[in-house]
Amino acid sequence: MGHRRTDSNRRYTCAHLICAYLLTKHINRAVVTAGDIAQFHHLSWASSRSISAMLDFLYTNRIRETRFGFYIMGTAPFKKTDYPHRYTIELIDEARGML
């Protein structure tokens, strides 16, 4: 999908950023882009690419594991393109103790 592969340590770092985003805003479900998460944490544009790669990995492989703390319910294109940029993310109940 145009992204480079993200290693497992980086996936957990990205997962923590996503959970922190949701928990800090006190929400269980959100429709966000990788850029929204990177901007919330004051990270660079390159970081949003890593977050996006990890989200694509989880969505493509339909991974729903407590070790990540959330799952992806679906995607939607941000603009009139076929590439999914917005992700509907929901926290898994066990994730509330991650922070």
Q: Would you write up a description of this structure?
A:
By secondary structure, this protein is an alpha+beta fold. The chain has three helices and three strands; from the N terminus they run H-E-H-H-E-E. A three-stranded antiparallel sheet has the order 1-3-2. The longest helix is centred in the N-terminal third of the chain and has 17 residues, at 8-24. The chain is globular and about 35 Å long.
Percentage of residues in DSSP E strands: 15-25%
Number of discrete helical segments? 3
In angstroms, what is the radius of gyration?
12 Å
Return residue spans where pLDDT drops below 50 for at least 5 consecutive residues: none
Q: Main β-sheet: number of strands, strand sense, barrel status?
A: 3 strands, antiparallel
Based on Cα principal axes, name the global outline: globular
Level of helix content?
40-55%
Compute the separation of the termini in Å: 31 Å
Structural class: alpha+beta
Give the total of beta strands. Answer: 3
Helices and strands, in N-to-C order?
HEHHEE
Mean pLDDT: 82
Taking strands numbered 1, 2, ... along the chain, how are they ordered across the largest sheet? Answer: 1-3-2
